[in-house]
Automatic annotation (TrEMBL):
It comes from the Bacteria. Residues 1-19 form the signal peptide. The keyword Signal applies. Keywords: Signal. Belongs to the bacterial solute-binding protein SsuA/TauA family. It is found in: Periplasm. The keyword Signal applies. Gene3D superfamilies: Periplasmic binding protein-like II. Residues 47-253 form the SsuA/THI5-like domain. This is ABC transporter substrate-binding protein. It comes from Ferrimicrobium acidiphilum.
């Protein structure tokens, strides 16, 4: 999974970012109506299929006119999707998302975005120097009750990833002191022992390891996708919903294997994210399912973690169909 970057650094072409958010609109000048779709997304480089589909005209081919609007978090936009002020959200999954669905807000996860790839870790649990006793391996006693930095706190997607990393040490989130710590601040916090551990993403992870300010003890699970595609309920009922998803999946299909780092694709991603192609090449790659199938197993596991640790306001798991709709992914045309 590629690195998470500061909000202000993402630069999408100004013509693609429109201030207006509203109900889906159509133009009937063509045989198939052109539908305006507002997409709220968190400005982090984990949504390459969107950039590819826009640049290569896949949305236009499906008679979709995409309007982009930046939000601070996926959770902050779910209410907009539920009320049809935006139609699509690309962002991270969180305890707040599950709570909102349980409370009756009308939206569902319909697809996945970037997942962790095999090979060099893009995300993982890092412990500060001196935490592991010399000549020994890490045990739960070195972490129990101690501060661990997570971007967004325990209820964010990183909280779930930390919970997975703690399992081998027979610990849960409730056994440690999770603090909300921004990714750019993690290296300093580890170096001065403000926290005993943190869960950074690349390139913050690689910078920490290169400076020897910590030790990677648990890479993120391969194939774990904690970001994805959310549809508002009203939009999901329209014909445009499948056409939008088909275009997005076509973008994902262009990112399979070595094609992800083709010169053409890197140029598109670099323009969309403000990254240089050299940095993009050096970052660990992401995995995108060709049909962007929603990560049902991961979402179920996330819900269980949030319930177990008291991070949601309900106590019994919702059925998968309450928060996931896989029908759009299931109907993506096969190449």
């Amino acid at each position: 999974m590629r690195r998470i970057k500061g909000f202000a650094a993402l630069a999408i072409a100004a013509s693609s970012v429109l201030a207006a958010c509203g109900s889906t609109g159509s133009s009937t000048t063509n045989a198939t109506a052109t539908t305006n779709v507002t997409v709220a997304y968190v400005p982090i480089p984990l949504f390459d299929p969107l950039y590819i589909a826009m640049a290569k005209g896949y949305f236009a081919k499906e008679h979709i006119n995409v309007h982009l609007t930046v939000v601070s978090s996926g959770q902050s936009a779910t209410t907009l999707a539920a009320t049809n002020r935006v139609q699509v959200v690309l962002g991270g999954f969180s305890a707040g998302m599950f709570d909102a669905i349980h409370q009756g807000l009308d939206f569902k996860v319909v697809g996945s975005m970037a997942a962790e790839a095999p090979g060099p870790a893009a995300n993982g649990l890092v412990v500060a120097n001196g935490v592991i006793p010399a000549g020994k391996t890490l045990t739960g006693s070195e972490l129990r009750g101690k501060k661990i930095g997570i971007d967004g706190g325990a209820g964010a997607a990183g909280g779930y990833l930390l919970a997975e990393a703690l399992k081998p040490y027979h610990l849960t989130l409730s056994d440690v002191n999770v603090v909300n710590l921004g990714l750019p601040d993690m290296q300093t916090a580890l170096a001065n022992h403000s926290v005993v551990a943190a869960y950074p993403s690349a390139p913050f992870l690689s910078a920490i390891l290169a400076a020897r300010d910590g030790t990677l003890v648990s890479p993120a699970p391969v194939n774990a996708a904690v970001v994805g595609v959310i549809y508002g309920g009203a939009f999901a009922k329209t014909p445009a919903a499948q056409r939008f998803f088909d275009a997005l999946a076509e973008g994902a299909q262009d990112l399979q294997g070595s094609a992800q780092t083709s010169a053409a694709n890197l140029a598109i991603i670099a323009k969309a994210t403000g990254e240089s192609t050299a940095i993009l090449k050096s970052e660990p790659p992401s995995i995108y399912a060709p049909n962007l199938a929603p990560p049902i197993a991961t979402l179920g596991a996330m819900q269980n973690v949030y319930i177990t640790n008291g991070l949601v306001d309900y106590h019994h798991p919702m059925g998968t169909s309450t928060f996931v709709d896989a029908s759009f992914a299931n109907h993506v045309p096969t190449s």
